[in-house]
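User: Some background: our group keeps a shared notebook of sequences we're curious about, and every so often someone picks one and asks for a predicted structure to add to the entry. Today it's my turn. The entry only has the sequence so far, pasted here. Could you supply the structure so I can complete it?
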Amino acid sequence: MLKDWIALTKPRLLRLNVFAAIGGFMVASKWDINVLLLIWAIIGSTLTIASATVINNYWDRELDLKMERTKDRALPTGRMTPGSVLAYGIILGVVGLAVLFLLVNPLSGWLGLLGWGVYIVVYTMWLKRTSTWSTSVGGISGAMPPVIGYCAVTGEIDAGAWILFALMFLWQPAHFWSLAIRRVEEYRAAGFPLLPVVKGIKRTKFQMIPYIVLLLPTGILFYSYGYVGIFFLVISVAGGLIWLIHTLKGPKAKDTDKWAKTNFLISVNYLMVIFIVMILNTTGS
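Assistant: Of course. Here's the predicted structure to add to the notebook entry:
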C-alpha cells in the first residue's frame, strides 16, 4: 500500500524536478548556502510537485486504463479509491505551498502555485485532452522548479531566473516527444491528441529540432551573464550539439523506435549532466 502512495507522486519525475530546484538554489547561492532555507525549499518544492502529479493521476484514472504503460497503476486497478487519492493530493499541495509561502518566501510560493495550477488546470484538465499544444504549454509548469529554487535565494526574478526557465521550458518538448513517439499507438488508443498522434511521427521529429536549437543559447547566456564558469559553457554547448545532431538524424532514421529511445536517454542525461556542472561551476565555487 505504501508503494502505491509513493507511486502516485511519480518518483522519477519528482526526483528530476527536485534536483532542478536544488540546481537553481545552488546557482543563486554561489555556495554561500543557507542550509535551513535549502531544506525548506526542497520540502516545499517536493510536496507541491508531488501534489500536482497525484491530482494528475486522479484526473487521468479512466484514460490510464487504456494504456499499457499506466493500466496497472493503483487507481485504474481499484487498489485505491479516487476520493482518498484526491484528498492526498490536496493535502500535499496545501502543505507544500504553505512551506514555500511562509518558510521560503512569497515569490517562491507564487511560482509554486503558478506551476501547480498550469500543470493541473491548463495541462491535465484542458490541453492534454484537446490540443497538440499540451506538451509545449504544459512546459511552463515543468520549468518552475529551478526558478523556485533560484528565487528562494534571490527573492526576485532576474536574468538568471529567466534563463533557467528557458532552459527547462525548451528542454521538455523534445524530451517528451521522444517518449510519445515510442508510445504513439497507446496514446492514440487513450484519446490523447499529442503531436505524433495528430500530425504524425515525421512531423514531430522535425518539430523537435527548433526547441533544441533554441536551447543552445541558454548555456551561452548563463555564462555571459556570469552565473557559471567556462566548464559549464563548454559542456552545455557540447551536450546540446550531441543531442541536436542525433535529433537531426530522426527524419531519416530507419528504426524509429531505436532512434526515439536513444534520443530520450540523451535528453535525460543532458539535463542531469548540465545541472551537476551548473552546481559545481557556479561563479562563486
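Suggested note for the entry: The domain at 1-156 is CATH 1.10.357.140 (Tetracycline Repressor; domain 2). The chain has a mean pLDDT of 94.
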